[in-house]
Amino acid sequence: MAKEPAAPSCPSCERPIADGTDDCPHCGANLVAAARDRAVRRFRRAKFLLTSALVAGFFLNLLGDDVVGWLGGAKKGPLGLSLRLLGTLILVTGGVFYARLKGRSGWWGLIGFLNCIGYCVLVWMDKICLRCGTRSKDKFEECPSCRAPI
User: Does some domain include residue 68?
Assistant: First the structure.
């Protein structure tokens, strides 16, 4: 037996509401604004985590051999090389996700092989709204056309 989908509920008062309702009939909360705020918070959190991973990958790639030297191992040994390769992998993977976050093709993530220069190129690229395709050079958090988070 298939389960019936649960009826939607208001995020503020948690009472059931009808589909397609913009305002909660019980507490008057604006459901559209609440959904947009949740999407913006998820977007900001993903952007923060992604930027943190890219910075960590950059430092692993840059300082992989030195970290091993500080720990008492051979600087040019296999552990240092492994740390640098891990840093490069994080940079490229993070670049793929960051490019997709900006509405670009994931192939732009290969620019992560250029380290800091590649990351700067990704940061300075225009954003493209994933919903309507509008390009934005400014630091908008919402698309000026459809108000989706970008």
Answer: yes
- Domain boundaries, position 130: 40-136
Burial class (CB in 10 A: 0-12, 13-18, 19+), 98: buried
Q: For residue 74, what pLDDT is reported? A: 60
The pLDDT value given to residue 76 = 64
Please compute the mean of the pLDDT values over residues 40-54 and round it to a whole number: 83
Tokens 């900001």, located at residue? 44
Structural domain includes residue 35: no
Residues with Cβ within 8 Å of 24's Cβ and at least 6 positions away in sequence, in order, are 10, 12, 13, 15, 17, 31
Has residue 103 been placed in a domain? yes
SS3 74: coil
Give the Å distances, CA to CA, from 139 to 64, 76, 95, 144. Answer: 33, 42, 19, 11
Q: pTM for this structure?
A: 0.64
Residue 147 belongs to a domain:
no
Tokens of 142: 């919402």
Number of domains in the chain: 1
